[in-house]
Specification:
This protein is α+β, with helices and mostly antiparallel strands and 239 residues long. It contains eight helices and eight strands.
Length: 239
C-alpha cells in the first residue's frame, strides 16, 4: 500500500495544529486530522503530542478502524476513534478537530443551547447536539472517546451537523477541508464567548435557520482569507 499523501496537505495539517493553538482553540491537548487525498479509507493525524510542537515528520497514517498503519510502531492519540468513526459515517467530511476550547464547555453541561449569534457562525445551524457519554458507558468513565464503539456513538450524535459538544469534555468540528474545519472550530469558540457575553444583557436575537444557512454559504466562499491570516500569525508567533 502506498501511504504518501500530497505534501501540501501535510503542510496544511501541520499549519492547522499551530493555528488552532495560536487562536486559543487547542492547548497541550486536542487534535486535528485530514482524510487522505488519494485513499478515503485512510486519514492523517499527528502522533500523540502537543499540537504546537507538531512537524511534518510527526504525521502518521491511520485506517478507519483507528489503527496506526504507518510508520510502523508509531502511536497517535487515544481518542483517534473520534476521527475514524466520523470518517466512516460521513463521507462528506475531510477534516475533523477535537478540542477543549474553554468558552464552549458551559454549553455542554447546562441546558443552555449553543446557537449562532452572528453571521460568522451560521454553520452552527438551529441545533448543536450534545454527546452524553453516560448513555454509552454509565457514570464511571474518564470521558475519553477511547474505543470504536464510543467513537461510533459520538459520530451518530454529530449526525449531519458541523459541530457537536461532548458533555464536560469539549467539542468536535468537521469540515470538507482543513480550512473549513479550522474556520468552524475558531468561530465556534468565538460564538460561545459572544453568547456568554450577551446572555446577561437580555434576550438574544439568534440567527434564523435561513439566515444561518445563507451566512454559512457566503463565508465558505472566503475561507482562504482568514486561513492565510491565521497561518501568518502562527508563523510569526513561532519566530
Amino acid at each position: 500500500m502506498t501511504f504518501s499523501a500530497n505534501s501540501a496537505l501535510i503542510d496544511d495539517l501541520v499549519s492547522a495544529n499551530h493555528i488552532l493553538v495560536n487562536e486559543g482553540v487547542l492547548d497541550g491537548f486536542g487534535h486535528i486530522s485530514v482524510r487522505h487525498d488519494k485513499n478515503p479509507e485512510l486519514f492523517l493525524i499527528a502522533r500523540s503530542m502537543a499540537p504546537a510542537l507538531v512537524t511534518n515528520s510527526d504525521i502518521v497514517y491511520c485506517n478507519l478502524d483507528g489503527e496506526v498503519i504507518h510508520p510502523n510502531g508509531a502511536k497517535s492519540y487515544v481518542e483517534r476513534f473520534i476521527h475514524s468513526e466520523i470518517y466512516k459515517l460521513r463521507p462528506d467530511v475531510h477534516s475533523i478537530i477535537h478540542s477543549h476550547s474553554p468558552a464552549i464547555i458551559p454549553f455542554g453541561v447546562t441546558g443552555e443551547r449553543l446557537r449562532p449569534i452572528c453571521h460568522m457562525s451560521g454553520f452552527l445551524g438551529a441545533v448543536t447536539p450534545v454527546y452524553e457519554i453516560r448513555n454509552s458507558v454509565g457514570e464511571s468513565s474518564d470521558l475519553l472517546i477511547r474505543t470504536q464503539s464510543l467513537g461510533r456513538d459520538l459520530a451518530h450524535t454529530l449526525g449531519h451537523h458541523a459541530v457537536a459538544l461532548l458533555r464536560g469534555h469539549g467539542n468536535v468540528c468537521v469540515g470538507y477541508s482543513i480550512q473549513q474545519a479550522v474556520y468552524r472550530a475558531i468561530y465556534t469558540e468565538n460564538n460561545a464567548k459572544l453568547q456568554l457575553q450577551a446572555k446577561p444583557l437580555g434576550e438574544i436575537t439568534f440567527l434564523t435557520e435561513d439566515e444561518a444557512q445563507a451566512t454559512a454559504e457566503m463565508n465558505d466562499q472566503h475561507l482562504d482569507r482568514p486561513w492565510q491570516m491565521w497561518k501568518r500569525k502562527a508563523q510569526m508567533a513561532q519566530i
